[in-house]
Every structure is written in structure tokens, then in C-alpha cells.
Fold these 4 entries.
Entry 1:
Amino acid sequence: MLSADERERPTQAQRRERTEAALLHAAAELVVERGVRALTLAAVGTRAGYSRGIVSHHYGSKQALVDALARASQTGFVPGVVHPAGLQRLVFLIEGYVAALPGADTLSRSFLLLWAEAATSHELAEVFRERDEAFRAELRADVVGGIDAGDIRTDVDPVVTAVAIVGQLRGVGLQLLLAEDTLDPTVLAPEMAEQWRRALRVDARS
């Protein structure tokens, strides 16, 4: 039978998970505070209280670290998205995304800053092309689901709509990071969601 200490001792998988979470948080802090150029394996290790060797062991390269940071920062950004694919889910996602921006954690803020820099950085471009395509695919599925359910007009193009929504959300996110004191997300979020609802719904042209 295991002793109380042995039962409470974290497993190897749990230790690895905690270490990776600490490293990603440290990486996100560096990006938010000093930009992607400050994101080195050595700097991340120092910030997290680990050696560079630990960071290299978990990620191997800066590129792999950035990839993991991009994936982690987008996971669960809008909580509570449980609606089936369709118009309701789409507007819920839009409103939730904007509403969450002022209180966005360090991981989410780092994603927006890295995304902006990806336009001129080869090492970031591929990672963020992949993440944006995953986001667009999710939105396209919502448009198709809404058309199938009879809630979204049949002449709405899922591809164009997804591109437009991602562009708007990312742009608003960056604006809020730069001007939190002058833009009110509690006004922006429901208004943007309602604009898309009116633009897409079946009776939009009636």
C-alpha cells in the first residue's frame, strides 16, 4: 500500500505538464513585455526558473516553442462554446472573443502580438497561417451549419465570411491592446455580434 506522501507525489506526466505550463507562461510574459526578439530558450528558462537545457528538452527549438505557445494561447479563449455549428454559435463566438479581450490573460495577449509580427517574420508565418486556417475552418463550419439549419442565407459564402470575421476579430483585438482606455468592449462585443447576426440571417434582406 502506498504511503500518504507517495499518493500525493505528482506523477512524471503531471510534473511534465506543470513544467511545460510554466515555460509557456514565461514565454508569453517575455513576448508581452519585450516582443518576440526576447523569446530565446535561455531567457524563457531564466524567467521560469529552469535551465536552458530544460527548455531545450521540452521544445528543442525556438520554433517549436512558438508553435506550442500559439496553440496553447488559442485553446479555450472563448469559454462556454457549446452550441452546435450554426448562426447562434457563430455570434456567441464573436461576442465572447471581443468581450474576453480586456481581461485576456498573458497567453492570449502574446498570441495577438505574435500574430501581428507574423506578417514580417518567416519563423512565425507558418505557425500562424495554420492557426488562422483552423479558426477559419471553425467559422466556415458554423456558416454551413447555419445554412443547413435554415438560419443563414444560402447566398452567404462561408469562405469569405470566415476571412472577414477573423480579420475583424484580430484587428479589434490589437486595437484593444493598444487603446484599452478608449474602447469599451462591453459595447463593442454585443454590437459586433448583432451586426453579423443581421448580416447573415435568412431575413436579412426582407
Entry 2:
Amino acid sequence: MNKIWGWMLIVGIGAGLATGKSADISAALIESSKNGVNYAIGMAGVVAMWSGMMRLAEAEGLLDMLTQKMQGVIHFLFPYIPEGHPSKKYIALNFAANIMGLGWAATPAGLSAMKELENLEEERRRSNHPFAVRAGMASREMCTFLVINVSSLQLIPMTVIAYRSQFGASQPTAIVVPAIIATAASTAAGILFVKVMGRRA
């Protein structure tokens, strides 16, 4: 990804210079740098807040309750994760946050889930488990979680609604129905893909 973005930046700047728009390039670079810093600071605050809330929810047993409610879905998608494994808590929280359209809230839970899935894979390698993959490779569960997380079924796209409202959209919530249709289709395609590929693995 770094190479792709790097080449896109180089090609864009080169095209601008070749067409005599160096002033516009300088202005865009300054403005985008400022926006990037503001975005990073804002995101850091939101992620820190939701990370703290996630820890509180875990301490109060709310993650256990959420995991139980989503046990059927999680078992269907991740049938080889052992019962009671801590990754299930963070997967459940990540899914719930994505369904509500709270992408920034889903990020801390997603990172924690990936860390626990990595720990699970290390345990498998130590015990010569038949499903273990080589060090440095993503496990079946990691790939499944990534696909479902990216496809991200959303019933209430709160983040997009907030952005539309911030930038002056006349009907910020008009995105709800199209978002449900689009993300339901992408999630269904993602689940079908991981199930088919899981059978071939």
C-alpha cells in the first residue's frame, strides 16, 4: 500500500508540474498536510475514548454478555476458535460497533481481536496443531475477520451521517437505506468468499 500511495503521489505531482500548476500543488500539499494533522489528532482522541470504554465494558462483564448474544454468528464464522477464547469478546464488540456505523469505535476492538488471534496461532504452532500456519502468515481466522470487518454490515452509518451533517448535506440520513443495501451485499459476498476458500484450504 505504501508503494501504491507513493507512486500515486509522485505521478500526481509530476502531472501537475508538467501542466504548469505548481502553485496549486503547493497549496494542496499545505492544505492536505494541515487536514491530515487535524484528522490524526481527532482520531487519536476518539480511539483513546473508545479504548477506555472497551476496557470498562470488559471489567463490568458487558463484553461477556455481548459475546453470548452473538455466539451463534461468531461460531458460524469462526468454527475453529476454542470456546471461551478472549478473541471472541473483541470480535463481538468489533462487529457490534461496525453494525452501528461507529468505525472508530470498532478500531480498538479490531486491533485487540487480531492480537488475540495471533496469540491463538502461536499456541497452535507450539502444539503442532493441524490448522497452524507458518510464522508470519495470517491464519484462517485472521483472514475471515479481516474480510468481514472490511465488508462491514452497517444498519446505522453514524460516522457517514456525522460527516454529511458537518459538510452541510440537506438530508444527512438519506444515506441509511443505500448503506444497508450496499453493506449487506458486501458482507454476504465476504461470508460466501471465506466459506468457499475455507473449504479449499
Entry 3:
Amino acid sequence: MIRDAGAGDWPAIHPFFREIVARGHSYAFPEDLSLEQARGWWMESPPGRTVVAVDGATILGSAKMGPNRPGRGAHVATASFMVDPRHAGRGVGRALGEHVVAWARAAGYRSIQFNAVVETNEVAVRLWRSLGFEVLTTVPEAFDHPDYGLVGLHVMFLNLSASDQPARSGSQG
């Protein structure tokens, strides 16, 4: 089940947020953020939204989403995803990805742009491609990977306004 994240969920999200950021394989967030500092990097305020994937009371993963840019860029959505490594391989990332695509479409966004998908994050790249995203470009040596050194960051894109897409309803945001 995927539901909106509440303030009380952050203490359960933070441990895997901290672990994923510390691994250094997929996010360029600052390391060693306090609980409260890290909250500001993950828990979105409107018009953004943060959700959690849960199994009962257990939080399996989380996603944050919203406009990629304010103002004249607000018709393009963006999102970030984290799955607790203890729950990897259960389809949580796919469920979160499908949820975000459906949310963006329903909210009236014309597309989704991921600004920085680490090219060596093959699981994520494969997932996003399977959901229809394409790599528009790769910024060379834009991410300092702890195992591979300087690697590229993909800019990935999904067109939600294509004629083969279901009609959108609702207003943006």
C-alpha cells in the first residue's frame, strides 16, 4: 500500500535515507545530516508530496515528488525514490514509480524529468526505462561514485502528454 507520509513517518524513513546516502551510489545529498536536517531534503511541502510504501506498520520505501521547477517550469514533475535495502527485490520501487507516474498524470503534469539518475545505478535505470522513461542525455563525470570514481548522471524523461496516454484530470500540484 502507498499512502501520504506524515510527520510521524520520518523517524522510520531516516535510517534507510541515511544508509542510502552514506553508501554514495545513488544520491548526491550531503552526508552526516542530522535527523532534522535530512528531513528538509526528503519531506516535501505542497505543491510537492512525499509518500511511503508500507506493509502493515512497516515502511518499505518512500518517494518524493513535485514540480521540477517553479513558475514556467511547473508543468514538468520530478521525483526521487528510496527503498529500504532490507526490502529490496519486492517490487517496492516499481510500485512507487507507477504511483508517481499516475499521480503526475492525474495532477495534470505534461511530463516527468529526473535530473540526476546515476548511470551505474542499473536497477533504477532499467526500472525507469521499463516505465517508459528515456535517457535524454548523460552529463559526464557529474557524480563521484565511491567504487567507480567519476561517472555520468542521466537526465531521464517521460512524456505524459503523448496522444497514447489516458486523459488527465485535476489541476496541477
Entry 4:
Amino acid sequence: MAQLLTEAEIKQQLSNLSNWTLEGSKLQLNRTFKNFVQAIEFVNKLVEPAESAGHHPDIEISYNKVKITLTTHDAGGLTQKDFDLAKEISQIT
């Protein structure tokens, strides 16, 4: 099982991520697209990095809005796996 990060480690890592917020013990990213098709295209681009990492985000889609939430469920909070995947997701356009 992955090890939980400390509050200080979380704050430090979060400072290196643009547009991600801390919501309790979860990382969250909200993206808005021109339309539904672009939103789905973005979500489809998340499949490969999530599968490669063996770590899957929670995803909510509402027309042109996508909310991505990351947490390591089996560890009960944020681990390095969450921040590593967040960095990869941040690079997807």
C-alpha cells in the first residue's frame, strides 16, 4: 500500500501544480471545454496514463465541464501516486 503524505508534503507538492485544489483529502481539477465532444475527448486521453499508473481518477462530466478527483482510496488519503498522476493529467490538452 502507498504511504500517505504529510500535510507539509501535500502543500509542497500542490504548490507545483497549476489549477489543482485540495478538497479535504483529495486533489481536484475542474476543466471547462467548448462543448461536450471536447470534454469527452479530454476524458478519453486520461485512460492510458491512468491504466499505466494503475491509478484511476474519479471523473464527473457535465456537458462541457469535467471534474477530476484523485485520492488513494486504499491508503485513505493522498499519496505520491496522486501527485504523479495529477502532473501527467496537467500536461493533457
